[in-house]
Specification:
Strand order of the largest sheet: 1-3-2
Radius of gyration: 31 Å
Strand content: 5-15%
Distance between the termini: 66 Å
Shape: elongated
Largest sheet: 3 strands, mixed
Helix content: 40-55%
Number of helices: 15
Amino acid sequence: MEVLEIDIPFEYRFKCWFCGEDSHTYIEVNHSEINGGLSLISIPTCDECQSYGCHLSVITLDELRPLIKDKIIIRSSKELSIGANWTEKELTESDFTGNAFEGFKRSGWEMFLIAKERVNFKAWDLCIDGIPISEVVNEEIFEFDGLTFSNFNSMLDYLSKTFFLDKPFLKRVLTLYGNDRTIEAVKFCRLVPHETETEREIAFEDLVESFREKDALALNNKILDKLVLYVDIDSIVPVQLKNNTIPALSIQWAMQNGVINFETLDRLEDNFFDTFSSEGDEKAFQLFNALEIYLDKRLSSLSWRKNQDPNFALWEYVESQCKLIRTRGNK
């Protein structure tokens, strides 16, 4: 079978198609998009990528590329772990002594950057005599802290080995957090106690519950965004607390926006300052602080709320409307 040579852009002359290192040889592999069937193409490669021998056990280039990427990650795991456990500043300012340690201090970060570039190297699109035969596209990219992986299992292996994490536990946590929050998942696994299977199970159940609570809060916030209330400012009585006067204007804003707890106030903080921006920054902060004092008093003292809050009846109306819209939203 004739072996076809791919075009090599000028900037990639003598570069390995898989990792970007200097290439000294070629491997021959089938490609399925030429002339409607398999054709042998010649791919420039470095000595290391060829030494893996992956091309001897696969049929097509699409199968070969992720295998070699995984091998690069495994071979470079020590160098990659430098970037996972250090910053450049921390490494250069470390107090390592002795020839071996000082050598690591000087060249460790550069070793990490070289390994990272090899892992993240994006091969050029394949062309023969100027005619494209395929684009190099990953269906899904898995990323962690600047590193890209060809598949989920490759990333899972790297993370579990680099951070000494229980692999099945990490996999379950990653499934919850999703591909775009991998760093958070790893941080969770490193911080929680998981020396035994029982401890890992308790930690995972707590994490699931926290996700449920966040989902419920997000749904509740979405429902309350539909809240439309009008409360006449003339019916609101200013409140005097701790030498602070909570004016009717800020109380009206809280009532009309269904601010019956601190979670809602925190969510609508930007809205508050946008509303009162015309008052000036200092005045707006005073109004917000006064509202926090009022809300804290209402939530911390049931007797004060019922017997001394002059706006008790209006708040009862606001809370009933919030409850009503939640009930409708959950149906």
